[in-house]
Write a structure and sequence with these properties.
Mean pLDDT: 91
Number of helices: 7
Radius of gyration: 18 Å
Largest sheet: 6 strands, mixed
Low-confidence stretches: 279-287
Order of helices and strands: EEHHHEHEHEHHEEE
Strand order of the largest sheet: 5-4-1-2-3-8
Length: 287
């Protein structure tokens, strides 16, 4: 069985409304084979303690480090810190996270919304659509690998989670047929402190894709704290590995699907810019 862990970064608030208002929104799906979860959990906690030691009191069981979650937003702040050593430390940690995922043949898909100037996002519509979109790519992956799967989302509020889960239920159990035959059931919602998969999905969303998108699509627009020139060093250092992790495919019409799809409401630039080479031509193929 494969598990797709979903987490988000950014907010739905109006772009430019405050100094720390987010100029974009990211949702990431991390696909992991359940047989690798035990090793991934142990290896991640070892890596975490090496780079960001837990503040828990000495003598606590090693797995308690999960309860003291390292949020991707903290690592993102380190990426734009004034000190070069602090920025390099964060990049090396994220590089180690990607190495753990490459070692177990994990995959990543995601959605990015770049807000237009002074624009907000509809919370229900944006989040629900993104989860459905990730579930669709996950279904394709499961069909290709002849496997079953389960979606686990980072829990938000009970009322919001019910609506998102129901949006999948209605497609899975519709009269006309099952849109997700390889999903064993509707998405479930869990607390990130209990799932290494969600914690890693958060790091990818908040500390890799978010800053890469902020640098690529938002530089020169507004004065948000999220517009940092330092983000590009991470983007360049990690783009090769994140490209190897993305799950992309061609549909029956030959169109590329999956990967990281960017909806740029600011300047309508293509998805291919997100992790593109510095001087290469901008590609219109989804990254």
């Amino acid at each position: 069985m494969k598990i797709c862990y979903i987490d988000e970064s950014g907010g739905f608030e109006t772009e430019g409304s405050t100094a720390d208002a987010t100029p974009l929104m990211v949702l990431i799906g991390l696909i992991v084979d359940h047989e690798h979860l035990r090793q991934l959990t142990r290896d991640f906690l070892t890596l975490r303690q090496r780079f960001y030691r837990s503040s828990l009191a000495p003598g606590k069981p090693p797995l308690d480090v999960l309860l003291d979650e390292l949020k991707g937003s903290k690592v993102r702040r380190n990426l734009r810190a004034p000190g070069r050593n602090e920025r390099r430390h964060a990049i090396l940690f994220l590089d180690g996270v990607l190495d753990l995922l490459l070692a177990i043949d994990a995959n990543v898909v995601g959605r990015v919304w770049i807000k237009g100037k002074g624009e907000a996002l509809d919370p229900a519509a944006t989040y629900t659509f993104a989860v459905q979109d990730i579930a669709t790519h996950f279904e394709h992956y499961l069909a290709a690998t002849e496997d079953l799967g389960l979606v686990i989302c980072d829990a938000r509020s009970h009322s919001k989670d019910i609506l998102v889960g129901h949006s999948i239920v209605t497609q899975k159990h519709q009269v006309s047929g099952d849109a997700f035959p390889h999903l064993v059931d509707a998405p479930v919602f869990g607390r990130s402190q209990n799932y290494v998969g969600i914690q890693i999905a958060d790091l990818i969303a908040s500390a890799i894709v978010f800053p890469a998108a902020a640098y690529t699509y938002c530089t020169g627009h507004g004065h948000s704290v999220h517009n940092s020139p330092h983000y590009d060093a991470m983007r360049v250092a990690l783009r090769s590995k994140i490209k190897r992790l993305r799950y992309g495919y061609q549909d029956t019409t030959g169109k590329w699907r999956g990967g990281f799809i960017v909806s740029d409401r600011l300047a309508q630039r293509p998805s291919g810019l997100l992790f593109s080479e510095p001087r290469g031509p901008a590609s219109t193929r989804t990254t």
